[in-house]
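Saturday, quiet lab. Running sequence design on the structure tokens for the scaffold JK sent over.
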């Protein structure tokens, strides 16, 4: 076996340029696939993290009749005494934060311009609001007793030309089906770098949201963050009650989880397509090598070298090309992934709904993806050497020697 690899290494060295570019073709394919897999993994990871921090939480406590596809303010669809419920939840050891939130739909109007928005009634002092407080780019965040202030996202402010201190009219649906209108002042402008969320979400203190929607002492959900997200199932069971439903982050983000499974199947198909294309370069290289070494193959067969050994020699060449190409590809891909993980790739607002997509995509390398890619690339490259190896092994010694003389 060692002798076969020595011969294979020598044979590849006869035409170093051709061997190098063959390995380089494989390296580029591996690097691009590694970068693509990292971008997909990074975007899914960031979208899930954003979805949990901004909206779903690790758990939500809701009314039994709650429908997430509707923004109902009917009292039977809301959680009663939400502060008391949140206090009971946060007393559990695995729970980090529990805070009530009230959702309502409305319209922000200023001058001749207006846009539909979602109203989030929140407890401004809750640590759950850290993404919004840390994302303040101008003005200041809310206080619990602020009855005339709201905080809006940067995309909404840009569309309506608003700045901190400006006055706007806010039309909000109420629990009895009416629409209430009131003037508010813009206290601050925030960004979570998630355009789909920022352009449609307006924050106001929970007490004010309850007053204007006529839902006193009620909230849409109790938003819960855990110290360890993996304990969400166990905590949900501990909070199980006949009065409310407890929903985990997996149940609230099924679309993202399903897309994650789809993306893995898509990447597996992409592996086969791109590596299959690069494998043709390996095949051409080895076939050219067979015809260039026809006489040499005939001599080896004439002195007693078995067909299996001749095949093994070409498999050794393809494995060396695979190892060289994969190592170069992993090195090149690692550099590209490292740069993309640090600086990201700006995409802006893609306008896709159902996902908490950020305005910048960052790569995230999953070790399992790199291992899978390495194995698939190695196997495909070995298979690429199968036809040239069979072609060389089937040569008759006499015909090979004659072919070498022409």
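Result came back. Writing it out in full:
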């Amino acid at each position: 076996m060692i002798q076969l690899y020595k011969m294979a290494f020598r044979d590849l060295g006869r035409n170093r340029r051709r061997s190098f570019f063959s390995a380089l073709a494989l390296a580029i394919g591996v690097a691009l696939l590694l970068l693509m897999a990292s971008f997909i993994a990074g975007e899914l990871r960031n979208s899930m993290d954003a979805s949990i921090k901004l909206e779903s939480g690790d758990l939500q406590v809701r009314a039994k009749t709650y429908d997430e596809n509707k923004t109902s303010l009917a009292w039977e669809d809301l959680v009663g005494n939400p502060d008391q419920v949140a206090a009971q939840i946060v007393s559990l050891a695995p729970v980090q934060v529990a805070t009530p939130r009230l959702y309502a739909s409305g319209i922000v109007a200023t001058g001749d311009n207006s846009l539909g928005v979602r109203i989030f009634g929140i407890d401004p002092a809750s640590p759950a609001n850290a993404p919004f407080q840390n994302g303040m780019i101008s003005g200041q965040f809310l206080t619990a007793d602020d009855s005339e202030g709201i905080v809006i996202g940067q995309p909404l402010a840009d569309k309506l030309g608003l700045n901190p201190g400006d006055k706007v009219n806010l039309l909000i649906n109420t629990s009895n089906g009416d629409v209430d209108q009131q003037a508010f002042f813009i206290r601050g402008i925030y960004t979570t770098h998630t355009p789909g969320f920022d352009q449609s979400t307006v924050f106001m203190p929970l007490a004010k949201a309850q007053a204007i929607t006529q839902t006193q002492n009620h909230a849409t959900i109790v938003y819960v963050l855990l110290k360890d997200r993996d304990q969400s199932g166990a905590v949900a069971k501990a909070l199980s009650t006949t009065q409310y439903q407890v929903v985990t982050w997996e149940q609230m983000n099924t679309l993202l989880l399903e897309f994650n499974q789809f993306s893995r199947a898509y990447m597996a198909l992409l592996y086969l397509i791109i590596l299959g294309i690069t494998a043709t370069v390996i095949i051409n290289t080895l076939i050219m090598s067979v015809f260039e070494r026809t006489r040499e193959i005939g001599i080896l067969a004439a002195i007693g070298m078995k067909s299996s050994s001749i095949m093994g020699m070409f498999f050794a060449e393809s494995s060396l090309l695979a190892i060289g190409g994969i190592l170069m590809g992993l090195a090149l891909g690692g550099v590209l992934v490292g740069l993309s993980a640090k600086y990201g790739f700006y995409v802006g607002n893609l306008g896709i709904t159902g996902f908490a997509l950020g305005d910048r995509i960052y790569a995230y390398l999953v070790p399992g993806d790199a291992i899978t890619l390495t194995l698939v690339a190695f196997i495909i490259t070995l298979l690429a050497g199968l036809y040239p190896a069979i072609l060389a092994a089937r040569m008759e010694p006499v015909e090979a020697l004659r072919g070498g003389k022409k």
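Notes for JK: Residues 65-242 form one domain. The chain has a mean pLDDT of 86. Ask whether to fix the surface positions before the next round.
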